Amino acid sequence: MKVLFAATEGLPYIKSGGLADVVGSLPKILKKKRVDVRVVLPLYLKMAQRNRDSFERIATVPIRCGIIDTVATYYKKETEGVLFYFIEHQGYFEREGLYGYGDDGERFAFYQKAVLELLRVIDFYPDIIHCHDWHTGMIPVLCKQHYAEDPKMNAIRFVYTIHNLAFQGNFPKEVLTDCLDLPYSLFEDGTLRFYDGISFMKAGILFSDKVTTVSPTYAQEILSPYFGENMQEVLKMRIQDLSGIVNGIDTELGDPKTDSLLIQNYDGKTVKEGKAVNKRALQSELGLREDPDVMLIGIVSRLTQQKGLQLVCDRIHDLMSQDVQLVVLGTGESQIENSLRMMEHRYRRRAVYYCGYNEELAHRIYAGADLFLMPSCFEPCGISQLISMRYGTLPLVRETGGLKDTVMPYNQYTQEGNGFSFYAINGDDMLNTIRYAMDTYYYSRREFDEMIKRAMKTDVSWKNSAERYLELYKSL
Predict the structure, then answer these.
(1) What's the predicted TM-score (pTM) here?
(2) CATH topology of domain 271-457
(3) CA–CA separation, 106 vs 92, rounded Å?
(4) Dmax over Cα atoms in the chain, in whole Å?
(5) CA 158 to CA 209: how far, in whole Å?
(6) Are 2-248+463-475 and 271-457 the same fold in CATH?
(7) Start-to-end Cα distance in the chain
(8) Residue 176 — φ and ψ, nearest 5°?
(9) CATH 3.90.1300.10 correct for 2-248+463-475
(10) 415-455: pLDDT as tens digits
């Protein structure tokens, strides 16, 4: 079976969110299952500066699509057994950021057309093109409209994965004809119309053969008005072809037994000693009071309303009145950042806020914290709770999307669970659950330690999810 992943970010080359983790991990697992899986990415500025000299140039070809009349240069490189292709266009992609520009409609129209032209250049016609998020939603439409006379292109089937419904690629209707060279009738008859413009995501949902999202619960949530982001009625049209497959993580890269960024490595048998050493080192590094017994809570996150950080800010004084330490790593909305700076100033040696992102510190937080707080208002899947369990740090999450699917709340009577959870988007409920976790930590430490072992045994790999994707591909 031949599968092409079309995405706009992917590890180890470029990342802005969880999409990159999926594109970096899932193809490697599928490759082991004898799938000829390849990945195509835009060649962004940072990638060009770091990696272009190591890429093999394939060809430069014209790309014509509406007013777009330019060229694309293709490169390739095999990485961990997976063949990556890169599309170079300095004007569109060699910028400081990845997204958020006024010409994003044109930029990613070019990218999608260039993906399809790549197939002819390398003479590779996959059975499946697996499209990811709004940036690739028009690929099925372009393939069916622009290559209708090509039997090899007509044979391709499409899987479209929604990683976050909140980002839809909505643009003025002129993008349809000017940048995609598609008939205006697709807007007039409502097929691609979304309010007064068009939606790349709507196109992916309607024109792909199968639609997936990144957890079973999120697949149900997005059919409701609260989570549907005004796309719920479109999704209901494809309900028979919609499914949720939970993400995994690369358990070889994220392994406390071999992680070179940790002060001391550990596994399920040595977790108590290993985490104690890493906790003490983290406290020392960040200027916290070195206390092996105090509960240390960690947060590694984008600081946004979606991630529920306003709940933390609203209850920060109540939280810090407890016998806990708090470490927050991330950047985002200025209001949340300012609240966390005030927290650090007021609760010196008990609370630390690191503004920005530091990969090494993130690993040490996962290994050194006792509790990992993730109170998301919505979370399609989430990666952080999977990493925290892998490192023996118990997640405390809100019951939504993939958090609900992956974290089983602790039950003190049956001694089951691998973390803690609460349901309502409410600071009081979050605080009460933190207190429950604290009571377990301070007064039922044996049960808390047993829960850590269960969390570390939780299968957070891609193994089962890769099998489900493979079954989905075979069904097409």
Answers:
(1) 0.93
(2) Rossmann fold (3.40.50)
(3) 9
(4) 71
(5) 5
(6) yes
(7) 11
(8) -60, -50
(9) no
(10) 999 999 999 999 999 999 999 999 999 999 999 999 999 99
